C-alpha cells in the first residue's frame, strides 16, 4: 500500500518535471525564433537577402535561427563591398 502511494507520487513528480522542462524548452525556442526574426528585419541587409533569411527561419525555425545568429548576423554587420 505504501509503495503504491509512493509510486503514484513519483509518477506525479516526473510528470510535472517533464512538463516543466518541456515548457521551458518551448519558451526558449519561441524566444530564439522571435529574436532571430527581429534581428533579421533590423539588419542592414538588402530586402532580397532579408526575405531569404526570413523564409529560411520560417521553413526551419530552430536551424534557421541558429544559423542566422552564427553566420548571417556577422555578414549583415560587415560593410558593403563595392
UniProtKB/TrEMBL annotation:
<keyword id="KW-1133">Transmembrane helix</keyword>
<feature type="transmembrane region" description="Helical">
    <location>
        <begin position="13"/>
        <end position="39"/>
    </location>
</feature>
<keyword id="KW-0472">Membrane</keyword>
<keyword id="KW-0812">Transmembrane</keyword>
<protein>
    <recommendedName>
        <fullName>Cardiolipin synthase N-terminal domain-containing protein</fullName>
    </recommendedName>
</protein>
<keyword id="KW-1003">Cell membrane</keyword>
<dbReference type="InterPro" id="IPR027379">
    <property type="entry name" value="CLS_N"/>
</dbReference>
<dbReference type="Pfam" id="PF13396">
    <property type="entry name" value="PLDc_N"/>
</dbReference>
<feature type="domain" description="Cardiolipin synthase N-terminal">
    <location>
        <begin position="32"/>
        <end position="73"/>
    </location>
</feature>
<feature type="transmembrane region" description="Helical">
    <location>
        <begin position="51"/>
        <end position="71"/>
    </location>
</feature>
